[in-house]
Amino acid sequence: MKKSILISAAILALAGCQSGDPQLGKSSVDKVLKAMTLEEKVHFVIGMGMAGSDGNSAVVGATEDIVPGAAGTTYPIPRLGIPSIVLADGPAGLRINPTRENDPNTYYCTHFPIGTLLSSTWNQELVESVGEAMGQEVHEYGADVYLAPALNIHRHPLNGRNFEYYSEDPVVAGKTAAAYVRGVQKNDVGTSVKHFAYNNQETNRTGNNAIISPRAQREIYLKGFEITVKEADPWTIMSSYNKINGTYTSQSKDLLTTVLRDEWGFKGLVMTDWYGGDNGAEQIAAGNDMLQPGTALQYQQIMDALKDGSLTEAQLDVCVKRCLELVKRSPKVKGYAYSNKPDLKAHATVTRQSALEGMVLLENNGVLPLKDVKNVAVFGCTSFDFIAGGTGSGNVNRAYTVSLLDGLKNAGFKVDESNKETYLKHIEKEKAAFQASLDPNDALAPFYPVPRPSELVPSPKEMAALVKNNDIAIITFGRNSGEFFDRSAADFELSKSERTLLTAVTAAFHTAGKKVVVVLNVGGVIETHSWSWMPDAVLLAWQAGQEGGNSVTDILTGVESPSGKLPMTFPMNLMDAASSLNFPIDATKDVYFTNRREDVGQKDVDQTDYAEGIYVGYRWFDKYNISVSYPFGYGLSYTSFEYSEPTVKNDGKTVTATVTVKNVGEVAGKEAVQLYVSAPESKLDKPAKELKAYGKTKKLAPGESQTLTLTFPTSELASFDEEASAWKVDAGTYQFLFGASSRDIRCTAEADAAASEVPAHRVLLKQ
Ligand code: BGC
Fold it and tell me: 3 falls in which pLDDT band (50, 70, 90)?
């Protein structure tokens, strides 16, 4: 066997020799590199342009439609056995075109839950299995690198892309992303972890300068990426659009070489975000190995810099080599015969099941799980037109989306459809009016998040019939989400018509002694404090992918007890978030700020001062005891859990904590346990508590217990001391808090740590 492999390798090598040129995949990368001309090298680090773009691509006649709808391809050099590899979006599933010209087949992909729902599961194994299913679609549809996951910090509730991201906490973001990467890459395809880094708003995102202290960068904005790189070894990383302290991230050697490679040991490739940065030569010099989707200008910039000596061929070679290594490990080079037939049926089950674990039960006065309910009245436009996920590059061309109405019917409920026609017509009409209001010459027109239609409030007569004929009311409120836009302040609040509907339905059903459940089909945080007391239950369903309506129904009926918890805080008021002072909000208007500078008028969006430093999310709310609607880590269950026997040990290398969790309720369920650390008094200002690890129990039967073991490196007790430019662990006694949320600490233990210090490069400084 071994012998025959050797013989065929020798034959292949000979075949390469015969043409005189080394072949990638057969000869060493160094040999191939040596055989490349300067022109080939420069072309190779630049992508093939983008279909539908301005034609300003690096190579004439550029875009190769290997996988139509994919975001990018790399430059092929057939004489050296270098194929074009395919880069395609995520993160909620693969984004390619569902149909192709002159081809009767369809190429639908599974729309999995949005990122925020995945992190709400607090279940790394489950996220890994979702990643594995996504990776299979990437592989079987002929793509090589999946442009996902996305893990920027939820710095502010109105960031339009929070739905793709995971959390306000870097440990949740990093662990979720690492699990996702491990899952996808099991399929021998790559990931591109994005957007590295500090891409925390869409407003003027391609020009915005994020001004952030080195401490906040290290502890908050880079930490999740560091965890992902160290734990999951992604094939690639995507730099972001914005600047950090005056330099485009894609042109920052501090970020892409000193921190990412020298300090963290990253061995893969860095690519730009699409058209990111403004100088191709500076990108190459910084260690941004591949420029996507590629422009003729970048080719010229690199060539000019090589000529005037500001960029050397040796610097270029570093990037070319990394591009070669990426292509070499791709399925394309290995000649993988993809089927175009991923297992969509199996993946529909994966998405339905995973969505169950990320839905968060916010309120429940006992109405859920539903008992003795047969006839259901549904309200709210979104009940009929469920939102699977967001738009823009995170959109997935799926075959269908199960609405709440259909989910309930699938489960055998008798849903009152007397209001269905009226709702559907109303939704159509408002959507058409919105489309008609758009400027067809506006390049962003196809991407504007369609505002949710105004709500319909039944007449007293219609309402009386709905109350009479049904056992319960379910109202869904929805919010669209999408790339290119930050949300408006109005999007955060319930609209006037939503409030009117909620008031009318609860008044009518409660008067008849019947219950009301609200389902939130949203991509991000909304205001709940002013109204969450009105209905009998509130289920935060997020945007749960194509099986959304089925997953919601499974939770409502108690097929599974909810076990999702919030990966971010729900503030009482928008302005309570520390970052509100420095986020481009116009609270007076219902406007979306877009990624275009000119759309924001006079407001200063050229730079964003992250003046709150490390005080993001619960670090802020808990330090200053600010009342919140729902704290970080919060989520109800149909059962309840008791925590006991907390222990913690620090051997100087690893902190190991254990806690026993017992299901003391009536039904089976899982519990997500959070381990926070409260540090001793220090020279540095510290948050009241910080999450260091978390875990989830298996499904515990009533009366059953499980001991969870949570570990993390002792070095993670450190804070970043800017003066010393070092990670410092203070000597002293640390409190370890086992929480059901950041404000529901069930038991504690303590352990000592010795002082230690790890120096870091003095980089990424404020100018
Ligand atoms: C987005 C990226 C995406 C890329 C390619 C950009 O607009 O920011 O997340 O991967 O486009 O579609």
Answer: very low
